[in-house]
Amino acid sequence: MASALRRSLVFSGAGLLLGAAKLVYSFFPLFNITDLLVFGVGAFLLVRRFPVNFVVAALILCLPATAMSLYFVSGLGMERISSGVGTGWLVSAIAIPISALIGSWLGARRPALR
């Protein structure tokens, strides 16, 4: 039980750190490609180090950054998003969970690191 709690805390902490990193690199161009790389590689490495169910790991890892992206999307409103402002945040809200799922799935297929 303590091991499962420890793994949950590690994935939650990593998700918060990656969410904070997303806030920093969101001001640079091509931040959607950076989302794919950061969250995919992060999920891959964490699942290899702490073997858990890859779906649960990806969801815990991407929850803070996805919530932040959805917060910005809801704040902008559909009028601005349909005119092109904030579409990067909408793409991020979709790309982050997908890249985390792919990265954790690939990491779960490999033997765990010790």
From the alpha carbons, calculate the radius of gyration and give it in angstroms. Answer: 15 Å
How does the overall form come out from the CA principal axes? elongated
- Outline the low-pLDDT stretches: none
Number of helices: 4
- Which structural class should the secondary elements be placed in? mainly alpha
Q: Note the run of SSEs as H and E.
A: HHHH
The major beta sheet can be summarized as: none
| Helix proportion | over 70%
The quaternary structure here is: single chain
> How confident is the prediction overall: mean pLDDT?
86
Total number of domains: 1
Query: How many strands?
Result: 0
Portion in beta strands? under 5%
Distance between the amino and carboxyl termini: 20 Å
Give a written overview of the molecule.
With 114 residues, this protein is mostly helical. The protein has one domain (2-108). Helices cover 82% and strands 0% of the residues. The protein has 4 helices and no strands. The chain has helices spanning 2-25, 31-49, 54-82, 87-108. It is elongated. The model has no long low-confidence stretch (mean pLDDT 86).
